[in-house]
Design a protein that fits this description.
binds adenosine-5'-triphosphate; alpha+beta; seven-stranded mixed sheet; Hydrophobic Seed Protein; binds magnesium ion; 11 strands; Beta Polymerase, domain 2
Length: about 425
């Protein structure tokens, strides 16, 4: 880590905002994540500024501002270089319901403002000359790789239970050890997480999973038992992750967040429909949930082929597998099929586990990894949109009325085309449709 005094992070816009405020006679500092990332020599996402100026005074210092969070004392300064959030020094009034309060009290002292922040590494400030003000020794904690609450951890988590999830997120994404009394407090206060809106929980979980160390985040979540204390009970047996230790480590080999969630949720061995319900409770967007559930549903369909007898790699006959794979890909979509192959490629080959998923991974997955892409490349169309005839053609040529019957017929044509039984050509498709009608 570099010496604090040499840190040169200030971008021109941030530097301008600080100098305008100090010229007008106020105190102004960079605070929070940008100072932390500067100290660590990491790229800075956004510059947050704290000042002794009141919001209306901030607004009078700059030609263009937006009152983006007046109730928290925040004004956004708009410059050609970008936007900068400027917040008046404040302390939070009484915490209510274990969440951060709606009302704030303005104060004139920077240290008081830093004191309300969650972790020592997030409670540092930097002035316009690049000097770091660090009343809670955040730099020392960062240097020794420790994540520690500002003040008494039990109180801090009691004031705002979301901090417990932020704790696990920061510990995993910044590769820090949670200091002992902070961790003990987290274990003690875990039940308070039930007061936190599921949206905020989801956002933290997503950032953990997208981050550089999703497996570490999962292990910390399991050790903390935070998932047992969510506002809504989810129908997912998270503790099953503990049985997939080596598989967890492969999650970070996947790039996209959908792939990562699909793999993590696959390891819980729950029906795709149950996972969909859980993702809804977690307020995942429809698109995110659909993408993940499609992958799980596809694996389920393929695995169902082998229900009853646990297959061995040697006994998996490629011909029926090719068929069920292509049909599954048509039903779940090509992108789900490609995604499932990416997951199967990163998962470990030698598994100690037992059960349906382990059997699938040992016996079926190697065949899919070997042939899956090639089988997909032989599928001429995956969706009705790509089929060479439409419902309109069936209506005109076969006098079929739109309705469920027509839907089923089109789906049959699509599937037979996907399997290579009929070419994707108008005449052949009409011929088949006439025969099936
Ligand atoms: P990142 O943006 O990478 O998540 P950050 O530290 O900038 O990290 P923000 O959520 O943007 O996090 O918050 C900015 C600062 O506000 C934090 O650094 C911290 O000082 C303070 N802060 C944010 N959330 C809380 C909270 N729940 N409790 C106390 N302080 C908080
Ligand atoms: Mg931030």
């Amino acid at each position: 880590m570099s010496d604090a005094k040499e840190i040169k992070v200030m971008d021109r816009g941030a530097s301008y905002v600080l100098s305008q405020l100090t010229k007008a006679g106020y105190e102004a500092y960079l605070v929070g994540g940008c100072v932390r990332d500067a100290v660590l020599g990491r790229p800075i996402k956004d510059f947050d500024i704290a000042t002794s100026a009141l919001p209306e005074q901030v607004m009078s210092c700059f030609p263009r501002t937006a009152p983006t969070g007046l109730q928290h004392g925040t004004v956004t300064v708009i410059l050609p270089q970008g936007t900068y959030e400027v917040t008046t020094f404040r302390k939070e009034a009484e915490y209510e319901g274990f969440r951060r309060p709606a009302s704030v009290e303005y104060i004139s002292d920077l240290t008081e403002d830093l004191k309300r922040r969650d972790f020592t590494m997030n409670a540092m400030a930097m002035d316009g000359a690049g000097v770091v003000l660090d009343p809670f020794a955040g730099q020392k904690d960062l240097a020794s790789g420790v994540l520690r609450c500002v003040g008494t951890a039990e109180e801090r988590f009691g004031e705002d239970a979301l901090r417990m999830l932020r704790c696990i997120r920061f510990a995993s994404t910044y590769d820090l050890l949670v200091e002992q009394s902070t961790w003990q407090a987290l274990l003690a206060q875990a039940p308070l997480l039930r007061h936190i809106a599921m949206e905020r929980v989801r956002s933290e979980l997503q950032r953990m999973v997208e981050g550089p160390a999703p497996a570490r985040a999962v292990r910390l979540l399991m050790a903390s038992r935070l998932t047992a204390h969510l506002k809504k009970q989810l129908p997912l047996p998270f503790e099953r992750w503990l049985a997939w230790d080596d598989a967890l480590d492969t999650v970070s080999a996947l790039e996209g967040q959908h792939d990562r969630w699909s793999l993590l949720l696959m390891l819980l061995e729950m029906p795709a429909d149950t996972v969909r319900t859980a993702l809804q409770e977690l307020t995942f967007s429809r698109a995110d949930s659909d993408a993940v559930v499609a992958v799980l549903a596809l694996r389920e369909v393929v695995a169902a082929q082998y229900k009853g007898g646990a297959p061995h790699a040697a006994s998996v006959d490629p011909a029926p597998l090719e068929r069920v794979w292509k049909l599954g890909a048509v039903r779940s979509g090509e992108s789900a099929a490609r995604a499932l192959l990416r997951l199967l490629r990163v998962l470990p080959q030698n598994l100690q586990q037992r059960g349906e998923l382990a059997c699938f991974l040992q016996a079926v997955a190697p065949e899919l990894v070997r042939h899956g892409d090639e089988w997909l490349s032989k599928v001429p169309c995956f969706s009705l949109k790509e089929l060479a005839i439409s419902g309109k053609d069936l209506a005109e040529e076969l006098s079929l009325k739109p309705g469920p019957r027509m839907g089923t017929l089109l789906q049959q044509l699509l599937e037979r085309t996907a399997l290579g039984e009929i070419p994707n050509e108008r005449e052949s498709l009409l011929h088949t449709a006439r025969a099936a009608k």
